Amino acid sequence: MTIQHQLIPGAIFEILASVAQTGTLTLTDRYGLLAAILEDNLTEEERRAVDRLLRSVQRGRVRVAIA
Q1: pTM score, whole prediction
Q2: Rounded to the nearest 5 degrees, what angle is found at the Cα of 32, between the Cα atoms of 26 and 37?
């Protein structure tokens, strides 16, 4: 059995807005990012947005919520 991940159009920017407001990357946000990366048909702008978000996590500007 394979699990299908499908990203809702515009979801990357919704995730960015949510994280910018709360300063926290939730489990739901992480699943959305996973689906986006696995889909492998992101625009260049979306890919850069994901990269910026991941750099913010790496630098400690965004917290990662556990559970």
Answers
A1: 0.77
A2: 125
